[in-house]
Design goal:
heterodimer; A: about 350 residues; alpha/beta; seven-stranded mixed β-sheet; four-stranded antiparallel β-sheet; 11 strands; about 25% helix; B: alpha/beta; eight-stranded mixed β-sheet
């Protein structure tokens, strides 16, 4: 967690946007655009875990891929350690790729079924020239031990492992090249609850030991609360709230965040919460509503919400919220920066 | 409650149900001696992790288990008849009419080339006969009942034109079109986003109230169970390991597996602490350990636990547990 504002972010996005064209027919011209990610500006600080939550189609996975440049942005920039990734030469980009890794959601489809686990984990080491021959095998053994698998796993194939064990292999593979920043895209959502806890703990231990920074993408709000220092809530491609974990879960501000949190079933039959049940479905990201994208489902929407796109701005407590009703003057301070300072810094209300 | 009382209130009774899968690697006893009853108007939550046998239990009740799976024994008593003893023809009449089922994935369980309305009409005509016209108005009525906006138009839409939440509403409309006494809902909200899940759970609760049906809710989500179930049965490795009222189960879980599950889930409130884990993983159906099936993963296990199978026994009134050491805390 950041102690002061002086810390330089490890990753920063500025107005990051990605639209996918929708074509009709084989050679058809684009008839519409899916606005997967729209104007996302945020900073990820060294050593922290930034959680990204939202429902299917909100753009959270696309955001992760844009940051890693597995996808190119339509507009906007990604900075890694202060360098604009869009301006790097291929050779420099290769070096950066080693330092940013990803753990995928589905441990069944993300591991090549024809490769032995040892080869899978050691592949990156060879590609990046980090180890040769016997060194590779030693490092693989070390990585397997780190993720709680026995050394004999190296000789086996992915199908011989359970879902949880495969996710351990995926984590070992990501860690092999000693990254500084890891995007974990729904790393536990395909796993059973008892196994999920094992993987969450493993990710936390590794972060502590290696000083990693995580972008943790998930739809499960309870898991994100457990692992994240700060949380970004996405809706239809936009970040609608960005706050510290305690702010977000203690007192959610954006009407969408409130509805989302109140919708989570609580494993305690004695708790009966006030539930905000949203009407309707999430609109398709190819037909994003005008104004605030949440206004058609928002229980608090006013007339202005239909016309104005709210800026992500500070409502006065250091977090960022994109809601006309929460932030009276959008020109408050450096709005749109998308970065909530550490809670120790009390923010001056203007 | 005496056995006679239980029989009076209960609408369905499953006794010693056993279903096996015969594969090259041996017999997998996916459901191994499952017994429970379902009372009129109540919701029983059947909880467990993947591979525990909860879905096979549901399919066995409706006799929809496909080879290499086979129902090996037991009884499913509904209104005084054993469903497992019915002819296939009689059984077909039971499915949909008396016992209906809603599946997890609405897209793959709806027919993609028929309109939503037609699929409801089909069910109505099959079970209740009557005219096409009558069936159609019933379809519109059902779509309205499940909260579908503009039902007169939506009956003519195809499943792919609807969102996941709307498709699940159509599934529920089909399932309820013949007023079943029992609804089996197998992970009905697992594929849905939380805000849509909240809508569907609310819908099921409202419909249960209006139609007085019993619901067997199968889920892996302890949060969902806590919110909607009256009673809970926890399954592990093909057996029920604990069953109690929802209140009692969450307040005072007695089986080490139930406790482990409850401790391993992160919460939305309360203090942050390291998640507790259940070591190891769920065994495959072909390799269940001898004795108590949970003993290799159990922190309370002692030698005797591995020696002989443990039966499900009443530890408190209305609270049954399959553990020799249920009275040990920890």
């Amino acid at each position: 967690m950041a102690e002061s504002l002086a810390v330089e972010p490890i990753v920063e996005t500025r107005s990051l946007t990605r639209h996918f064209p929708v074509r009709r027919g084989v050679w058809g011209r684009p008839t519409a655009h899916v606005r997967a990610v729209e104007d996302v500006s945020l900073q990820i600080l060294p050593g922290e875990t930034l959680g990204v939550v939202g429902e299917s189609g909100c753009g959270k996975t696309t955001l992760g891929r844009l940051i890693l440049r597995l996808l190119d942005a339509t507009s906007g920039e990604v900075y890694f350690r202060g360098r604009n990734l869009g301006e790097l030469e291929a050779r420099q980009m290769r070096n950066v790729r080693r330092r940013m890794q990803i753990v995928f959601q589905d441990p069944y489809s993300s591991l090549n079924p024809r490769m032995r686990v040892g080869t899978l984990i050691g592949e990156g080491l060879k590609v990046h020239g980090m180890a040769r021959g016997r060194q590779v095998a030693d490092r693989v053994e070390e990585l397997l031990a780190m993720v709680g698998l026995s050394a004999s796993a190296a000789e086996r194939f992915p199908h011989e492992f359970s879902g949880g064990q495969r996710q351990r292999i995926g984590i070992a593979r990501a860690l092999a090249v000693k990254p500084e920043f890891v995007v974990a895209d729904e790393p536990v959502s395909a796993l059973d609850v008892s196994v999920q806890a094992q993987i969450v703990n493993l990710l936390q231990d590794i972060q502590q030991d290696l000083g990693l920074t995580y972008l943790f993408i998930a739809h499960d709000l309870s898991v994100v609360r457990h692992i994240a220092d700060r949380v970004a809530v996405m809706y239809l491609g936009r970040v609608v709230e960005l706050a510290t974990r305690d702010q977000l879960y203690g007192a959610p501000s954006h009407p969408y965040t409130r509805a989302l949190l109140s919708a989570v079933p609580v494993p305690n039959p004695d708790v009966r919460r006030q539930r905000v049940v949203l009407t309707g479905d999430v609109p398709s990201p190819s037909r994003v509503p005008s104004g605030c994208p949440f206004h058609p489902r928002c229980p608090e929407a006013i007339d202005a919400c239909r016309r104005e796109v709210p800026e992500l701005a500070d409502p006065g407590d250091g977090r960022r919220v994109a809601c006309l009703l929460r932030v009276s003057s959008p020109e408050d301070g450096d709005s749109g920066g998308g970065f909530a300072p550490a809670p120790s810094q009390t923010h001056q209300e203007s | 409650m005496s056995a006679a009382d239980a029989a009076r209130a209960s609408i369905m009774e499953v006794r010693d149900l056993r279903t096996s899968f015969h594969t090259a690697v041996g017999e997998g006893r996916a459901v191994d001696g499952v017994s429970f009853h379902l009372d009129r108007g109540e919701t029983l939550g059947l909880v467990g992790e993947s591979g525990c046998g909860k879905s096979v239990t549901a399919l066995s009740i409706l006799r929809l288990v496909a080879p290499p799976g086979r129902i090996e024994g037991g009884k499913v008593v509904l209104s005084g008849r054993d469903l497992l003893g019915l002819t296939e023809k009689d059984m077909r009449r039971v499915r949909g009419d008396e016992v209906a089922m809603v599946f997890q994935e609405p897209m793959s369980s709806l027919n993609p080339v028929l309109t939503c309305g037609r699929q409801i009409e089909e069910a109505v005509q099959l079970h209740q006969g009557g005219s096409r016209q009558g069936a159609r108005s019933r379809a519109v009525e059902m779509m309205d009942l499940v909260g579908m906006p503009a039902p007169e138009q939506r009956v003519d839409e195809f499943p792919h034109q609807l969102s996941g939440g709307m498709r699940q509403r159509v599934m529920i409309a089909i399932a309820l079109s013949c007023n079943p006494q029992v609804l089996i809902a197998d992970e009905p909200t697992t594929a849905l986003d939380v805000t849509i899940q909240a809508q569907i759970l609310e819908l099921l609760a409202r419909l249960q109230e209006e139609l007085h049906m019993a619901i067997l809710l199968i889920t892996h989500d302890l949060g969902v169970v806590a919110e909607v179930a009256d009673r809970v049965a926890v399954m592990y490795a093909g057996q029920i390991v604990e069953t109690a009222t929802t209140k009692a189960l969450f307040a005072d879980p007695r089986h080490p597996y139930t406790r482990g599950l409850l401790r391993s889930i992160p919460h939305l409130d309360g203090e942050q602490r390291r998640l507790e884990v259940i070591p190891g993983r769920v065994p495959e159906a072909t390799e269940f350990p001898p004795g108590c099936r949970f003993h290799p993963r159990c922190l309370l296990a002692e030698e005797a636990c591995a020696a002989a199978p443990q039966s499900l026994e009443e530890c408190l009134i209305g609270h049954q547990v399959r553990c020799r050491r249920w009275d040990v805390d920890g």
